[in-house]
Amino acid sequence: MKKLDALWKYQQTELSLERLDARVKTTPARLKLNKLHQYLTEQQNSIGSLQKNIETRKGSVDKLAAQVDELEHKYELEVSEFSVMKNDEEVTAEEMTESRRSVEALISRMDSARRELFDTLAWIEKATGDYKDTYARAAKAKKEYDEVRALCERELADAQPRIEEAKRALAAAAAKVDPALMERYKKIKNHHAVPVAKVENDQCGGCNMALSTTTVKRVAADEGVVECENCGRILYTE
Fold this sequence. Notes:
By secondary structure, this protein is mainly α. Helix content is 77%, strand content 4%.
């Protein structure tokens, strides 16, 4: 028995376990669960963002309302003063013009503050509606998520005996592989999912590059561990 036979057997057993894991992780229920999880995360982020923005806007409402009140009070004083000035014969035309401009400026500022207050209240009303709608959608998705997750847990429980059996087979296969060879195998696996490649038609079964005659003979003669010069996989032939 060639020393690479044990490593090849280990790789085949490992690939079987990986395929089994992949089947469990890619069932329709599992794929749906992943989509629901992503959707829920997006909805929760939206809820958090809306809640924060609503609180911020609510905090600005009191300030805007106070600003409107202050401007209205100033306006009343300016209008009152303007009325007094109209009946004062000693007041000049320039003073009257200046007072009128001051009143007009206050009116403009009041209108601007009122619009901002109105827009803020309208935004809060709309955002509150969006918050309720988003929360309702998230609650519905959460219920469906819990149902699908329970199904995935049942699927995993059903597959668990086969997974455990595959793990035991993998451990048994690993015990027959030379530790140094196993270490080399794991390093290559960091770059290639399948570290050991068969020599087929004088080509590397991993990258399909043609191998030299010398390399093919070395692999066939079991002259140590031979790696593909192109991809670095361990070459193997039965």
